[in-house]
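Input (USP domain-containing protein):
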Amino acid sequence: MFGSLFEEEGEGYSLAPSGGRVVKGEGEPPPPRGRVNLSGIKNQGGTCYLNSLLQTLLFTPEFREELFSLGPKELGCLEDKDKPEAKVRVIPLELQRLFARLLLVDQQSASTTDLTDSFGWNNSEESRQHDVQELNRILFSALEHSLVDTSGSAFIQRLYHGTTVNSILCKECGNISQRQEDFLDLTVCVRGVCGLEGALWDMFVEEEMFEGSNLYRCGQCDQLVTAAKSAKLRKLPPFLTVSLLRFNFDFARCERYKETGRYTFPLTINLRPFCEQTEDEDSEYSYELFSVIIHKGGCYGGHYHVYIKDMDHLGLWEPPEEDTKPKVQKKKEVRAYTEPEKDDPLSVLSSIIAQEESRSVLLDQLGQRLMDKIGSSWSKKYRKLHGPIGKFLQNHSDVFVLVNNGTWVALKANPPSPVTQPSSPAHPTPGSSSTPDPVHNNTANHLPEPGLETEPKTAPEPQGSHWFDLNDSTVTSIHERDVEKMYQGKESAYMLFYRKTLLRRPSGALRNPGYQVPPHLLEMAEEENRRLQQRREEFEASNNSVELRLHLAPRYRLENGALKPISIEQKEATNLTFDRCRTVGDLRMIIYQKQDLWEGDMALTVARSLPAGLHLYNTLTDDEVSLYSAGILSGTDLFVWNGREVCGATVQTGAEWEPVLLTVVRPSLGEEEEEGEGGGVGEEGGSGLTKQSRGFAGRVTLGEVREALGEPQESLLCQEKRGGEGGGASGWRVFPPGDMQRTLKELALKDGDALLVLEPQTQDSSVFSVSGDMVTVTTPSDCRWLLVEYRPERRRRGGGEEEEERMRAKVPASGNMLLCEVKQRAIAELQLQEHLAGVACCLRQVDRTGKLLPPVCEELSVRDAGVRLMTSLSLCPGTAPKDTQLFLYFSVGTAPSSGLEGEIIVERSSTVKQCLKKMLESARLEGDGWHLRRLDWCEDVGEALMDEEASLSELKMSHGDALVITEGRLPPKGFLKLSVWLYVEPSAYSVVSMETEVNGMAAGSTEGQRLEDMTTGETHTHSMKLSPLAKMCVCLVGGAMVELRTVGQVEISEEATLEELKTQVLTLPELQYVCVPTPAFLRVWQLEGQRLTRILRGQQHTLRKLKLSSGVEFCVQQLLREEDLGPKEVLLRVQMGVPGERGYYPPEDLVWDASRDPSPRSLRSALASTYGLSPDSLLLAKHQPHTHTWETFSNWSQQVSKRKKKKKAESLLGAPFHLKDGDIIGVKNLLIDNNRDFSTQQDEQRLREEKEQRRKGGQGVGAEVETNRRVGPEKKMGPIKTRKTEVALSINVGVFR
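Output:
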């Protein structure tokens, strides 16, 4: 709910058309209501959840009328809320005022600021994420506490209160233990349930058995017995609120997630099967949907809006703009008429029996007749909601009768046939049952609760009318069928609100927003409407006025391509207020009247003030155009002139002639410069250079600039080099001769750029040094200073450490001064000669965080050492490196941390071995079992320095590099040190889908038990007993998850063969129980990052030929037969699709020989031979684990080269498939499976998650999961990003007892 999710368009601003004004919110009145004539609610930054619930309560007429029935005598007056003795019930009063504004005030959206203030919320609370289900309970609780001791104290209970009863039946003695529970809303499960009816069936019909090891202690029997637990609805409220549990927790990933699967809910529902008492009429259990609160987004943020059915027809419903054509609508209407037969089992069974001549059917044959009619069995279609078919027939004894000892089922003579009665839902949904018309039911014995009215059913409205989408400030019409689109996805239903179909609205409430509104609130609304109308009229008048600045030509002159005032004392512009709805001709006449002495033509040109002066752009030529249409805004500058010249000088207009203000730099060489031509301002300031500001038109060439400056052609023009070198000198780039014909715009010169002019006689000066196209300027101003700070060592006094006060000295320096001279001057300035006598010290630079950088080489100059003047250096104890030496950091075991690393100075020509020896001496370590490693780019311990005889300069080491002393010897030269993992085969060979979880094991089993289960399964010819201390990880093989177990490391020559590598691996202690006849029974995979990438082939190939290097990880897989793959043989994991389902059988390994023919034809033939099928009946696709998609292989078509007239077969080893070892190939048998879609629900779920992550600017979920499953025990799961702390929602209520 953060960021742009709550930013509303048009709220607080007036979005005028192009060229109009944009006025900030306070002075602008709110816009009136839109075409639907309903008011929205402003979002305060994060209150969309509150807005959705308030709109639902507003469009619950019985709720708002109960609220309006409470007068000031019971609630008090808001004017008295600050009085200490007054008991003012602020929350219901503010809610009354808000509802009155939403109903009666003519504004696009109302504000909830006063209401949230009465809640005690601050600004942070109004922008914080909260849950609408939580708000619903807290708001009802706050209202109940606020209405204590009033006539409305029980209206929440009257409207929303219901009860459930939980029963436990003892199977031994028949004793029933019951407990009653109250509810204001029902919370139903979403996970694993297809819809609302299924969830209610699980809650109130299905029984939970206590048996086996989970027995129940009966109070009557006083022993553990078998029992059945069930629940029923005992009392139904007039309004049923259903909260959907869409947010769950994934214990495998340790994170929350949102259920986005399909979850249906009917527009009307009959709750009779779920109630304890079922003897009443159907109308007592019938509910209709009137509000759906929708959540869009994920579990950590999103947006709420609400679909509402306008029961009182207060809004003006009209078909949405994207409405379909009438022809399409007609088709949909036919579908809506025919579907209830299939979805209503009462209608279906009645029609089946009615088609028989005897109007009766054998009960055993009824199931087959049902299958023939709807194409599905009773168990699959209706059992979950309606129970067994026999029980359903018995429950509807008013329609069916069982004869001949229950073997035949017949229709009664005059049943209340649902075929002839209209079904109550306008658009039936799956599982909804038809209910008789409430008008024909006897409702005398079933009166509603007090305060709830029932009236005869009025004439039905057109289908789909009076449903609206209320999305904060925006209200739009929708169709009733649009509600069904909220069954699934990231934008899906979150709360459902039903009302009893018995509740009818009185005729006086229809299209009457003022119905039952108290008189004082009606007066308040009328007064607010009057004020709003007055503000809109005043705003419209003021919003059309623009402030113009007129610049008259006689006051200006043209200078350096720009217009400048002739006199500084004279006022430059004249302000004029004008109506922007009037024309340009009207403006011209007004100016003529104000300028009596103006003669000749008058042109009005839009101008703009630039650093170089005033510049003209487009001229207003059409007198019939209004200023609004001409794009004239408030604050526009207009230049009044004759359209040709100013003071006799021709003026160029347009953006291409915009003047550029350049800083012209010339050497002064001690001579006094006069003011430059054209009145430019000259500065010297003792720098040796004179600077002068000059303006030039943007379209003049550089050569014309040189002529304008009065310079000969031999003069050099230079541009300052940005980010010049350190040491005090400034660098300039000489413009080549070709640039003399280019304009200033083409050279990208802009205001403030410096232009150095060097005349021929100054180029040989010692101040300037020309090298190629670069000019270095060294002026007396380069002799600046360096700030040297002395940092003494800490010394102990009285058992504690104290630091002496730091001393600073500003040392005059230049770029050519040696750093050793700077150090000597600093010691002299700080008077440290005696203190530092015989003590080595050095100069070190300091970064922005105050950390000391490596010492600088004192044999170099300030410029050569890269030290910038006017910066700080620290004088520290220690030796300064020479030009032939390196200063390095080092640490032992881990990456260096600030203040804990060691420092060392070594020769650049030193070898790695010599450097390691010196570091070990400094760290006081002994032995030769150590080696050095670099740090990688993320400051982690990286690769080892393998060549100990290489010099540091050959390894390109530089000042300040850090090395890590790591325990362990390097393998001898020509030897490799490889990490070995064991591929653990899975034992589950059942039908699976691509949705297998990462853990894939029974919950609660230990790691050792899981491993034993996996390694001693029935699929193995022998068992493998591995050490329980070996570390495990999860790895990807072509998109499938397998487990790997580390078994150790081997050290082997790179000239050894693959067969010798397998033999040495079998000698590891962890594999002592793995018995294989020959090394050919082992398959070796290479591990790269998180995946098994390739199989090592060729038993006699050397490891060098296989391109293995030290540090490579690989894993071995035990096989049931010998294997020796050729270079063109590919190991594929083939899985056959399960017919009729979006899943696959367990994968099987297939070795495909692609040496002769790598085309799809060859692979299809190999698979056809494996499965014993025809190649024409197979459809193949490759799974892409990175993108969670499937690429289908092409058919038998082949490409034909026009030139050679030869057939060119498509190769699966090349683009776009690039088949390699471990790839998953999906296979569809088209003879029994017509579904050509290879994707699974897991693929779709991953794509949705990654899309949501990309929208949030984060990493894809799939990639994040793979990162958390990295190979290696040191990689641990981490959160995707830090989230804000969730704060509980609360509403502050006063005490009114």
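Residues 30 and 429 are 41 Å apart (CA to CA).
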